[in-house]
Design brief:
Largest sheet: 4 strands, antiparallel
Mean pLDDT: 87
Number of strands: 8
CATH architecture: Sandwich
Radius of gyration: 17 Å
Helix content: 40-55%
Low-confidence stretches: none
CATH topology: Jelly Rolls
Number of domains: 1
Number of helices: 5
Strand order of the largest sheet: 1-8-3-6
Structural class: alpha+beta
CATH superfamily: Jelly Rolls
Shape: globular
CATH class: Mainly Beta
Strand content: 25-35%
Length: 160
């Protein structure tokens, strides 16, 4: 499957024009990971985000105790790494807030932030479509986190 086909399947780009998708396709690349291989580490400089074409990644965050805590499992069709784009200034990107590791052999589409920012600056309609899709995805993730936290609190655990 070509990158453009994967972009069309992504909730972030499914409503975009073919012309926009072609521009993103030209700048994107395929990344293949072996099981246990890290895509990026917490604290790394970030310049792109990823769509999972096939496979599963585990997103981990450093804990106060020194270990890593699994935050999420990101599977085929989903995306990761967009938080840095949202937390950064135009053209100046922050560092990764978590580590992403392949739970199994995985194939990803890497989309550079710079290309997205150029498209957003040039086409406000694309910007609206893209940011609305990001907002929907983040809303769903926040709801899942709230549900998980509610479940933990119902166990009456201390320090939660």
């Amino acid at each position: 499957m070509a990158v453009i086909d994967q972009l069309k399947k992504s909730s972030l780009f499914s409503d975009c024009s073919d012309a926009t998708l072609k521009q993103i396709d030209k700048a994107s690349r395929i990344v293949e990971l072996a099981p246990g291989q890290n895509l990026f580490y917490e604290g790394d400089k970030a310049e792109s985000f990823y769509i999972v074409k096939a496979g599963t990644l585990v997103v981990k965050k450093s804990s106060l105790g020194g270990g890593d805590e699994d935050l999420a499992r990101i599977g085929t069709g989903s995306h990761l790494g967009e938080m840095t784009l949202l937390n950064s200034s135009l053209g100046v990107y922050d560092t990764r807030t978590a580590t992403a590791e392949a739970a199994e052999a995985s194939i990803l589409v890497e989309v550079p932030f710079a290309v997205l920012e150029e498209l957003i600056q040039a086409d406000s309609k694309f910007g609206m479509i893209f940011y609305r899709a990001i907002a929907r995805n983040l809303s769903a993730r926040i709801q899942k986190t709230a549900d998980d936290l509610t479940s933990l609190k119902s166990l009456h655990l201390k320090h939660v």
